[in-house]
Amino acid sequence: MRVLLVEDDDRVAGALIPALTRRGLAIARLATGAGVLDRVHEVDVILLDLGLPDIDGVTLCRQIRAVSDVAIIVVSARGEVDDRIQGLRAGADDYLVKPYDVEELMARVEAVRRRRGEHAAAEPVVIRVGDVSVDLSRHEVLVDGQAVALSRKEFQVLALVAGARGAVCSREHVLTEVWGHRGPAESRSLDVHVATLRTKLGRPTLIETVRGVGYRLGGQVARS
Question: Biological process (GO) annotations (predicted)?
């Protein structure tokens, strides 16, 4: 099982990595949130600390969930009920408060992977509209069989709209999930990203604007 540990404390990581490796896990570690979204499709489970130096862990959790169905376990010293609720609502599958027993962590890792595996087997991860294919799990977009290179945020926006499968995806939801804020600057950036997506995909009607509400996919949605 491939695990990405997102932990800024070298002492915690130094003790946890060998302990998990001895139990048969393949561990990669990042000390900051930078680079996490580029690695989510390479791993089975993410162990996510919330107290990161460059980004709030809850915001990062939302960003991960916007582009991937990877299992996420928050492992944090924030142990208040409100903290746990916030983490779970951001998309985490489980929440473990530090300090914890390694065997309990292993049990939770195995449990969330088992649940995620069952979910993945039942749920489609590729959404098709005409000749456009959006693979949510592989972070890949094909147009007429050809791969289209998108920036991280462009894919996140497309993934959210595609994930709604024809229903309207509100601007507020996209702004919160991708940017973490809903200010004027972020709103303008969203408009630019949608316009860029339409140009890059070469399908200007793929993402329809629902005035005053948000966006939805244009055309008949197929799932696989």
Answer: regulation of DNA-templated transcription
